[in-house]
Design a protein that fits this description.
There is one protein chain. Helix content is 77%, strand content 0%. By secondary structure, the chain is an all-alpha fold. It has 2 domains: 166 residues, no CATH class; 35 residues.
């Protein structure tokens, strides 16, 4: 049996439709604290019931994430770091979170806008240091879309599994998780590491 809360989330996503997913994920990707885990898994559940399309749900989530990230990016470009540090707390951006995100961006470079989409806290703030550093808009959108698309796909898949197996999720999804880890997640992780190493070497003088 699904919890009443999850069922309520699924009913709400169904009522809002794909435009609602775009809006909610745009909010999640901005400075407001709306977890994507409350949006995409219910959409995946609806996919399992034939009430939504997986492709359209992921596309809507990705589009919303990019729009929200662009808002943060433009905010950083327009107001700059001093203003954000002074007044960021009024839009739920603490100095501690900003310091952590800036350090992550400095350490990993522009590809952090891709990697950061998969990490909590970093996910919705990584666009700010990208804007501060005037990262090329095309690369910012491309990296953000790739990371957001991957994250939305994972959450939608989890919701689909919940819809397929209901209250017996833990036992029933074992084979699916094993298959996904073996054929998709692990190879994907290898590719990400290889891309990261290539990116770092590409930006290192003398290489």
């Amino acid at each position: 049996m699904l919890t009443s809360f999850f069922q309520w989330l699924a009913d709400s996503v169904l009522a809002l439709g794909y435009p609602g997913i775009v809006l909610l994920m745009a909010i999640e990707s901005s400075v407001l604290p709306l977890p994507s885990e409350l949006v995409m898994p219910p959409a995946g559940y609806l996919v399992s019931k034939g009430q939504m399309s997986a492709g359209l749900a992921v596309a809507a989530g990705t589009l919303g994430s990019v729009l929200g990230a662009l808002l943060n990016y433009l905010l950083a470009v327009v107001v700059g770091e001093p203003v954000l540090r002074r007044y960021g707390k009024f839009v739920l951006v603490s100095e501690r979170s900003l310091d952590r995100t800036e350090a992550f961006f400095r350490r990993h470079g522009e590809i952090s806008t891709f990697i950061g989409r998969l990490l909590p806290v970093i996910r919705h703030l990584i666009s700010i240091p990208a804007g501060m550093s005037r990262m090329a808009l095309g690369r910012f959108v491309a990296f953000t879309a790739l990371g957001a698309g991957l994250w939305c796909s994972i959450l939608t898949y989890l919701g689909w599994l919940i819809g397929r197996h209901g209250g017996d999720v833990a036992r029933a999804i074992g084979p699916y998780v094993h298959h996904t880890l073996l054929y998709y997640v692990l190879p994907g992780a290898v590719v990400l590491v290889a891309l990261y190493v290539w990116w770092r070497r590409r930006g290192t003088p003398g290489r």
